[in-house]
Amino acid sequence: MNVEETATSTSDAPVTKKYPPWIDAITDRVTSAGLSWARQGLSLGKRALESSAKTLSQTAGSLEEWAHKLERGKNGQESKDRATPPHT
Q1: Quick check: pTM over 0.90?
Q2: Per-residue pLDDT tens for 22-57?
Q3: Is 88 part of a structural domain of the chain?
């Protein structure tokens, strides 16, 4: 990666200014470090979302179980109510 800056002089001819080679090395290292941090952050975010999805799925399953239990209890109560005549 070669870093150059182009500027125009008073004669409108482009002037190219070259930076020392160590600038390229620093630029490459900073870019590499930034990409590493980005990969790490994306990986961590993915794991967090997967964990949340698993937890939500388990919670949904528990809610479904409770709904079935309540429905069975309600149906059982209705059949008992029909079997016994009302008190007058």
Answers
A1: no
A2: 999 999 999 999 999 999 999 999 999 999 999 999
A3: no
Burial of 27 (0-12, 13-18, 19+ CB in 10 A): middle
Is residue 54 in a domain? yes
Read off the tokens for 1. Answer: 């990666």
Give the domain extent around 49.
Answer: 4-82
The residues, any chain, with a CB within 8 Å of residue 9's CB and separated by 6 or more, are 15
CA distances from 81 to 44, 77, 88 (A): 55, 6, 14
Q: Note whether 3 and 27 are within 8 A (CB).
A: yes
Q: How many domains does the chain have?
A: 1
87 is a domain residue: no
